[in-house]
Amino acid sequence: MPHLMFVYGTLKRGFVNHADHLADAEFVDHGRTCDAYPLVLHGEDFRPVLVEAKGQGHRVAGELYRVNEQALDGLDRLERINDLDGYRRRRLTISDSQGQQHGAWVYMKPSAWVEDVRSEMMDFFDDERHRA
Fold first, then answer.
1. Which of these, 26, 15, 17, 2, lies nearest to 79 by C-alpha position?
2. CA-wise closest residue to 67 among 86, 50, 89, 48
3. Which is the catalytic residue, given 26, 52, 79, 128?
4. CA atoms within 13 A on the CB side of 63
5. pLDDT mean for each 10 residues of the chain (132 residues)
6. How far apart are CA 26 and CA 65, in angstroms?
């Protein structure tokens, strides 16, 4: 069964995690979260993280992909969803480039886990340090 996945950081095309995890996935469209969330750079390696703080920040831009169960499992391992400080997979409403809304999986962290913030809130991620 295919899953719709919204990516906003290093899984986007042109970034370090795309080729290993989404190169074979079906690109659906560009999208944006329907609600505002904080997108910040976090930690010593300036990782992009979408924070579970609905209503703060911006409507975040990213890419929508259709992935199979195997790809979803690989993404869950990459994002360490079962680790204490890993990401959590959440379902958000995403608006595509035509304004249609879709339910999609997104990796986020609770705000209490994002202490070492290294940036202002952004509406899109385009950090050269993480380019492929």
1. 17
2. 89
3. 79
4. 19
5. 95 97 96 98 94 97 97 97 92 98 97 89 95 94
6. 5
3-state secondary structure (DSSP) of residue 72: helix
pTM: 0.95
Q: Which helix H or strand E contains 18, and what residues bound it?
A: helix 18-21
Q: Say if residues 8 and 50 touch (Cβ distance below 8 Å).
A: yes
Residue given tokens 């609600």 in the structure block:
35
Cα 125 to Cα 15: distance, rounded to the nearest angstrom: 10
In contact, 57 and 51? CB cutoff 8 Å = yes
Task: Say whether 79 is catalytic.
Answer: yes
